[in-house]
Amino acid sequence: MELENSQNNALAKLPMLKTGEYECGDKDDLHLVREKTAKKNDVKAKSLLLMALPNEHQLIFNLYVDAQSMFVAIKAQFGGNEATRKSQKALLKQTYENFNASSSESLDSIFNRLPNSL
To answer: Which superkingdom, per the lineage (predicted)?
Structure first.
């Protein structure tokens, strides 16, 4: 019984907030928070992009101001055009076919063929 009374008293003493009595922050404060969050996300994205690059290319791409422009530059540098991608794909397919062996082929012939394809 005492426990119930003490819980009811504790609940009764909680302050009730009235609407319209408190001011939210200025819109400028909200804008600053959003800017800060966007800047933090951009720094994270730039860091991830730089970690994905080989060491010799990091200094070149570190000069870009934001992650989006850095990504576009990386894509232009390493992505190539459609013809390049097609030729790389064909080369990978041929390498796979050279590496793949039929069940009737002997282990010696596979071994002799591999150094020529690499």
So the answer is: Eukaryota
